[in-house]
Amino acid sequence: MAIRVLLVDDQPLLRTGFRMILEAEQDLAVVGEAGDGLQALDQVRALQPDVVLMDIRMPRMDGVEATRQITGPGRDGPAKVLVLTTFDLDEYVVEALRAGASGFLLKDAPANELVQAIRVVASGEAMLAPSITRRLLDKYATHLPSGEEPVPDTLHTLTDREVEVLKLVARGLSNAEIAADLFVSETTVKTHVGHVLTKLGLRDRVQAAVYAYESGLVRPGAQ
């Protein structure tokens, strides 16, 4: 079954370019296009795409609000959102990740990265280098808690090792790097990450990194 993709961008020329790239792949199918967030919501309901390639800055409804409505609480549809941005430190990316996006990609990324990102997101994984997540959160630290707030109750459901893993995810380490740091196998790390996501009710490691910052477990700028 081909991965069904919806293109959302207010620039028709960009949508055409993305369509040409994606339709050259046998396992990808562009099922529709939208020029703003409101159109995107209609198209998601009508077409049931697997992945929505979402621009952030658009008229009428931006990509953040559209993402929130597509992936927010109570949504049981299959659509995952991959956010597109012109700037790698776009403040709206942080809000999009909080809203439920599975990651983001720069608009000038090579075609092979775009294709791979869609495949990764469709599989249920997060397409976002954790180090980029951290740079974003560090840059916009003024919008985050100071670290002096009470630790949320949900954090106490984690074991000590799971807390360690969560901190390392937020620091930008890959599974392989976490495994080396803790002297365990990558499989063990994946298991711990899975437990963290389940216990905290999070979608993926991107949201886990955001949670670590917002809960005060990791402070912006800390090593």
Automatic annotation (TrEMBL):
Domain Response regulatory as annotated: residue spans: 4-122
PROSITE patterns the record matches: HTH_LUXR_1, HTH_LUXR_2, RESPONSE_REGULATORY
UniProtKB keywords: DNA-binding, Phosphoprotein, Transcription, Transcription regulation
CDD domains membership: LuxR_C_like (cd06170), REC_NarL-like (cd17535)
Residues of the signal peptide: none
SUPFAM superfamilies recorded: C-terminal effector domain of the bipartite response regulators, CheY-like
Gene Ontology biological-process entries: phosphorelay signal transduction system; regulation of DNA-templated transcription
Gene Ontology molecular function terms on file: DNA binding
Domain HTH luxR-type, chain residue ranges per copy: 151-216
4-aspartylphosphate modified-residue sites: D55
Pfam families (alphabetical): GerE, Response_reg
Protein name in UniProt: LuxR family transcriptional regulator
Organism the protein comes from: Streptomyces resistomycificus
Phylogenetic lineage: Bacteria, Bacillati, Actinomycetota, Actinomycetes, Kitasatosporales
